[in-house]
Amino acid sequence: MMGAVGRWLTAVIAVSLLCAAADALMPQGAVKRAGRLVCALVLMGAVLSPLAELDGAEGQRWLKEYLAGVEYREAELQETINSQMKVIIEEECAAYIVDKAAQLGWTCTARVECEDAGEGLYLPVRVEVAGLLTEEARSRLALLIAQDLGVPEDHITMDKGEVP
Hints:
Helix 1 (2-25) packs antiparallel against helix 2. The protein starts with a helix and ends in a 6-residue tail after the last strand. It folds into two domains: 2-54; 82-158, 2-Layer Sandwich (GMP Synthetase, Chain A, domain 3). The longest helix is centred in the middle third of the chain and has 48 residues, at 56-103. It contains four helices and three strands; from the N terminus they run αααββαβ. By secondary structure, the protein is of the alpha+beta class. Helix 4 links the parallel strand 2 and strand 3. Strands 1-2-3 form a three-stranded mixed sheet, with helices on one face. It has helices spanning 2-25, 30-52, 56-103, 135-149, and strands spanning 109-116, 122-130, 156-158.
């Protein structure tokens, strides 16, 4: 790459020097004006010469590879966002259950599992609650979880610990 740039720069400098020498040697008048026009065209050709060497197929291949890389990276980022969103929703639902239990005077911990419902939407599908709860507290909490979070009662697991 640097070799090509060096050759291009050498050609532009050489054409510039030749044009300057030709301009100095040309007589005044129409000949000098025509000579300057020719020198300008030759210099423009030297400056634009790399464009003639461009390979359109190579450029298209590079662009396709670049766009494929962008699409891959976009999918990778979307997957990362989705997995982080799932974790956040699971943690928020678990915190909701613990807070709801605390409002009712119970102490427990909760673990929520969510599944992808499409388009980055995650819904809770399984809940595990652990804590020293009475049978009545377990059933009321399971009912609240089913109503508020939409988790079927058969997907809610309650720790069978005994109340002290």
